[in-house]
Design a protein that fits this description.
The chain is of the alpha/beta class. It is built from 11 helices and 11 strands. It has helices spanning 20-31, 67-73, 85-93, 109-116, 128-135, 146-152, 172-182, 219-224, 246-258, 262-267, 270-281; strands spanning 12-19, 44-50, 56-59, 99-103, 120-124, 141-142, 157-163, 183-194, 215-216, 231-240, 289-299. Strands 6-5-4-7-8-11-10 form a 7-stranded mixed β-sheet. Helix 6 packs parallel to helix 7 (172-182).
Length: 301
């Protein structure tokens, strides 16, 4: 029986099962990437909910994406976006901080922004190709994992950030423990992940499943961390709907509502969807909840 990766309890509920053959087929069709080797010969991938924290997690953990997978995805322009919504919020939260680490910094875009803002910031990244690209720009980025950093520099940081990283981690309890180990008391832990309560919950999104994502986070799941770690949740922000997510947002809700009843089939058709998209793109999207969830914790002890 699997256990919750946060509480290590077997108090979990099976939510769904996904045939590996379907994932393999869809990855080939969508990205021209063969993930057969990434799925470790598993016939099905299972999504569970931890009943205590409401964290959603995939099993088995052995289907976590390898470095090879990320090297393939790196070829797409959208994979390592240089300017993210959460970066500007984080720079505000980092005012008054000096020593900062970004975990999973990719090509170092946020590290570069932090240096410009006057922070003593460095990044660590497991994708060697991304590390070489960042170092090619003379950025302080190393190929180092979080455990190595925490063991070498305990209680050294004013803040630790990770953007679009924690959803990839099969063992979040270890990741969060190492993050807190590296922080000083009163240090800030800043995290941004896809919001499982956004339109993603109605979307068949290959990138939000193994071998890419292993966890689905919500505000409730993050609030549960206060009972597991010596932290206080100080800030929660939801990303407004980005222009490049409008189409996915409408498709997700259209498919969901159309499956509910006949009236919704009339409200969500190809003509109305074009109208809704125009209205959203004209500015209404700024008032609609988008994809990501940003949280900031304070280390208490």
């Amino acid at each position: 029986m699997p256990a919750s990766p946060l509480t290590e309890s077997e108090n979990i509920t099976l939510v769904s099962a996904i045939p590996s053959s379907r994932l393999i087929h869809d990855w080939k069709e969508t990205f021209q990437i063969d993930i057969t080797g990434e799925l470790s010969g598993c016939e099905e991938i299972y999504l569970y909910q931890c009943n205590q924290t409401k964290l959603l997690f995939f099993e088995p953990s052995s289907v976590t994406g390898s470095g090879w997978l990320y090297k393939q995805l790196q070829k797409f322009d959208w994979f390592y976006m240089p300017d993210k919504w959460e970066h500007q919020i984080a720079l505000q939260d980092l005012k008054g901080c000096r020593d900062v680490l970004e975990v999973g910094c990719a090509f170092g875009s946020f590290v570069e922004a932090g240096l410009t803002a006057g922070l003593n910031i460095q990044g660590i990244e497991l994708n060697q190709a991304a590390v070489e690209a960042a170092q090619g720009k003379d950025l302080p980025v190393e190929n180092l994992d979080l455990q190595e950093y925490a063991d070498a520099y305990p209680n050294s940081l004013d803040a630790l950030c990770s953007f679009q990283v924690l959803e990839h981690v099969p063992n979040p309890k270890q990741f969060l423990s190492w993050s807190l180990q590296a922080l000083k008391v009163n240090g800030k832990l800043i995290i941004c992940v896809p919001n499982s309560e956004s339109f993603l919950k109605h979307q068949y999104n290959l990138l939000d499943m193994p071998p890419h994502h292993m966890l689905k986070w919500s505000e409730i799941a993050f609030r549960s961390l206060e009972k597991i770690f010596p932290v206080r949740l100080e800030r929660v922000e939801r990303e407004p709907l980005m222009s490049y997510h409008v189409s996915g947002y409408l498709n997700a809700y259209s498919n969901y509502f159309r499956s509910r009843n006949q009236l919704n089939r009339l409200l969500f058709n190809r003509h109305t969807l074009r109208f809704y998209e125009k209205v959203l793109q004209l500015g209404l999207r700024k008032y609609v909840t988008g994809q990501s969830l940003y949280v900031q914790f304070r280390k208490l002890s």
